[in-house]
Amino acid sequence: MSKEKILVTESSMPSLEEYVEEIKPIFESKWLTNMGEKHIKLQEELEKYLKVKHITLFTNGHMALYSALKTLDLKGEVITTPYTFASTTHAIVQNGLTPVFCDIEKDTFTIDTSKIEELITDKTCAIVPVHVYGNVCNIEEIERIAKKHNLKVIYDAAHVFGVEYKGIGIGNFGDMSMFSFHATKVFNTIEGGGVAYNCDDYTKKLNLHKNFGITGPETTEAVGMNAKMNEFQAAMGLCNLRHVDAEIEKREKVAREYRKRLEGIKGIKLSAIQKNVKHNYAYFPVVFEEEFGKTRDQVKEELEKYNIYSRKYFYPLTSDFECYNKQYDSSKTPIAKYMSDRVLTLPMYADLSLENVNKICDIILN
Ligand SMILES: *Cc1c(COP(=O)(O)O)cnc(C)c1O
């Protein structure tokens, strides 16, 4: 039994030399934050890489999503899914909005668009769908529904850095898309995030929210937050961006190996491969159904005996969080509940060796 620890993820990092080279000018200028040179450069490079018109950077993805919702000045109900990270639901609630939970599709783990319209009321103001694991939501249908009912669409795009749909950068859809550059994501700035959008008017408002609402030396126009990305974060991003394509290629090899071993096994369900989508292989989710003979929790425990750490992601559903005091009924989103009770994301990162992938699969299959 090997003692090497395999965690569910490992952050992508440049060499120490590359990072030191990148931060040298910061030591000369002593400009550490507040939209410095690195911040400006990263923003420009991300706009190019993600093929979006605008991106506004934040110190993390959550503040980016919070500020995106704030910028649209929404009131009332927001249709979203409970099969997500805490951030999505919290950002809605922190904006004084009421989340209304829609179920998800079994194959992609994203919002089931056939169930959105029945949830729309005269209070509904927006849809906040989540692109899950690198899978893309049913963008066209969401756009049709949003137009018909005059709703805003803000995507949680934390999982889809670099993903394209029909050759178009994923950040171009809806009114805004939030990306997370957290250490555990495909591309990281240690902590970090951004909001991508096409409408020129949003830039000023987003910048207000990330810097206390300050517009000039003697003017403060909004009750804003402090959510600026600092220069050391931006420098990490500039380095990581040089390698992200190679990292995604390595992830693809890992995903292919997992699929080779686990596809077609009785009781194991893998995420669908979507047409017209350039994927980023952010996660490798596996659903263990009854016919497998062992539960998800049993598989997780067995892997841990070998020092291998998978993650119940997403479990529990956000609608079942203690902080929401049973306000929501997760039995109304039965597919989300079913998936959440059976899913395990296996270790996935660029430097995971194929040998270790096989070791993980051997343990699962034996
Ligand atoms: C990571 C993540 C976020 C929040 O991002 P942070 O950068 O950690 O604040 C939001 N939504 C989803 C689905 C995520 O996975």
Helix content: 25-40%
Q: Total strand count, please? A: 15
Q: Which strand order does the major sheet show? A: 1-9-8-5-4-2-3
Q: What is the CATH-assigned architecture of the largest domain?
A: 3-Layer(aba) Sandwich
Regions with little confidence, pLDDT below 50 for 5+ residues: none
Strand content: 15-25%
Q: Name the CATH superfamily assignment of the largest domain.
A: Type I PLP-dependent aspartate aminotransferase-like (Major domain)
The quaternary state of the protein chains shown equals: single chain
Which ligands appear in the coordinates?
Answer: pyridoxal-5'-phosphate
Roughly what is the average pLDDT, rounded to an integer? 97
Q: What separation lies between the terminal Cα atoms? A: 15 Å
Shape: globular
H and E string: HHEHEHEEHEEEEEHEEHEEEHHEH
Largest sheet: 7 strands, mixed
CATH fold label of the largest domain: Aspartate Aminotransferase, domain 2
Q: What would you report as the Rg, rounded to the nearest angstrom?
A: 21 Å
Structural class: alpha/beta
